[in-house]
Amino acid sequence: MNNSPLLSDNQENRRKVLKKIWKKSHLDFLLLVGVLILATFGFGILYSAGNQSLALLQHQVLSFILAFAAMCLFAQIPTYRYQSLVPWVYSAVLLLLVAVISVGVINKGAQRWLNLGILRFQPSEIMKLVVPMMLSWYLRNKNFPLHTKDLFVCCLIVALPVLIIAKQPDLSTAILVAATGAFVLLLAGITWKLIIGIAAIIAVAIPIVWHYFMHAYQKARLFTFLSPEHDPYGSGYNIIQSKIAIGSGGWFGKGWLLGSQAHLQFLPEHATDFIFAVCGEEFGFIGCILLLGIFLYIVGRGLYLSVCAQDTFTRLLAGSLSISFFASFFINICMVVGILPVVGLPLPLVSYGGSSLVIFMSGFGIIMSTRTHRKLIGA
Predict the structure, then answer these.
(1) Are 245 and 210 in contact (CB under 8 A)?
(2) Which DSSP category does 122 fall into?
């Protein structure tokens, strides 16, 4: 009985120490929980989609550990540091994109990678973070709604990397980078007149992009999207098999590790682009809704943190990164179910691949930084 007060004091001290350590980590607990749940669910789906390959799962877990470390690192950086570094980082990554065109590694007909010996990476992936950061930096002291001059500068900031990425060719990443820029402008607030003007410019640019930037296989994807049944064993095969896999899952699915489309090699790219179809086949409609719920929870938490931001830069940055995450999984799911053309985007934190995993987790770290460093803004 005499030791109970001492024990209680020790427990209180440990609690205070843990609380202090957690505060210094600059991580947002609710966002972190959502990310960890999604990643865990993703490991389970990937293990099944990869035909129970431990090597594949181990590589993904190691990539996640690296991505988690990147998230923690970016969360440590105060947002005012991002403001001072953004123009330099944007310029550097833009130069890396130019370097890809001249000395980049060619793989499967695309020149998208830089090989530095010990490291091989895609600079275009980094632009998913850098473009919204650059736009948020430029708009931090502007008056809203935006004037035409400011909108022109913003479009130039977005257009330069987008055109270079599309030339690699990597149309899916180019679209997503352009979308991240559009999200920043929407969050900043633009008039309907400017929205109509941008829509008119896009309409005029479509035939130019079609003739000068799109390759034959990219055009074929659009034709396949409109009528996949015209070539069921060729260009339409992927989307047809994807729909079969999702439809065969019914309400509750066939069960984990029991999907036939992926395991019997009917479903192509079942560990990357079409992994959502594996989820639909094995976990059914209920499993897909649960996965969507986790995604939306993460987006909702990110948007809440953007609302809590104390200045324009952090508000635009956190909001645009959150919506960019939404766009990534929304486009992938719509692609898999046949609502959008197949563009080759992975399902965030679920599909196999280290580059996109590190980028998305780094984005979450930046979002967390906007919340936990609020008192340091303007310091």
Answers:
(1) no
(2) -
| Strand, helix or coil for residue 52 | coil
Residue 17 Cα distances to 6, 13, 24, 322, 368, angstroms: 16, 6, 11, 32, 21
The DSSP H or E segment spanning 110 is strand 110-115
From the CB of residue 21, how many other CB atoms can be counted at a distance below 10 Å? 9
pLDDT, tens digit only, all 379 positions of the chain: 455 665 566 777 777 777 777 777 889 999 999 999 999 999 999 999 888 888 889 999 999 999 999 999 999 998 888 888 999 999 999 999 888 888 776 666 566 777 766 667 788 888 888 998 899 899 888 877 777 788 888 889 999 999 888 887 787 888 888 888 888 888 887 777 777 877 787 788 778 777 776 777 667 777 777 777 777 777 678 888 888 999 898 899 998 888 888 777 788 888 888 999 999 999 999 999 999 999 999 999 999 999 988 888 888 889 989 988 998 899 899 989 888 887 778 899 999 988 889 999 999 999 999 887 765 444 3
Taken as a whole, the chain contains a residue count of 379
Q: How far apart are CA 342 and CA 326, in angstroms?
A: 17
- The alpha helices in the chain, defined as continuous H runs, are 4-25, 29-49, 54-76, 79-103, 123-138, 148-166, 171-188, 192-212, 216-226, 237-248, 260-263, 275-307, 312-337, 355-372
Annotate 175-219 with DSSP letters as a single string: HHHHHHHHHHHHHH---HHHHHHHHHHHHHHHHHHHHHT--HHHH
